[in-house]
Amino acid sequence: MYHKIALKIFLLFAIFSQAAACAAGGEIKMNGKLLEISVKCKDDPKCEFTGNDVFLEIFITNRSDGNIGYPLEFAKERGPSVTLRDTETKKESQLSTHLADWDLKTEFTVIKPGESVKIDWVVTDDELKQFGGKYVDITLEVSLSDEIRVNDKKVEFNGSGSTRIVSKDKENGQ
Hints:
Layout: H1 2-24, E1 28-29, E2 35-41, E3 48-49, E4 54-62, E5 68-70, H2 72-78, E6 81-86, E7 92-95, E8 109-111, E9 116-123, H3 125-129, E10 137-150, E11 153-167, H4 168-171
C-alpha cells in the first residue's frame, strides 16, 4: 500500500518537474501582437482581377521595440496558408502550401523594430475563378504560423492579413 502511494507521489513530482523545466526553457505562446501581416497586390493598389494571375506582396512588420528573428527563407519556400472566400456566396477554398527544406526553419532573418520583410506569392487565375461566378469578388486571407525568436526565446507566432480582389469589369459596372 505504501509503495503505491510513494509511486504516485514520485510520478506527480516527475510531472511537475518536467512542466517546470519546459517553462524555464522560455517557450512562449503569442497571438501576433509583435508582428503584423499585411497583404497587397504587387503594382496594383486596387487589386483588380483582369483574368490573369495575381501577384501578392506579403509584408511581415515588426511592431515591437526589439529585434525579432523570423524564418523568412523557410516561409518563402513553403508559402503562406491562403484562404479564398467568395464575397457573394461565402464559399471558401483553402490553397495548399509547398514542401520546404525543414532545415530552413532554424535560419532566422532579423527584423528590426518598425521594419518589414516581404514574401512574394502568386495566386493563379484558375484559383481565383474557381467559384464559377461571372465576376471575381474574393476576400483573400493569408496566414503565417512559424516559430520565431524574441529575446533568444522560442515564440509561436500566428498572424494573418487580408485583401479583396475584384474583377475590373465588376468595379466599372460592366
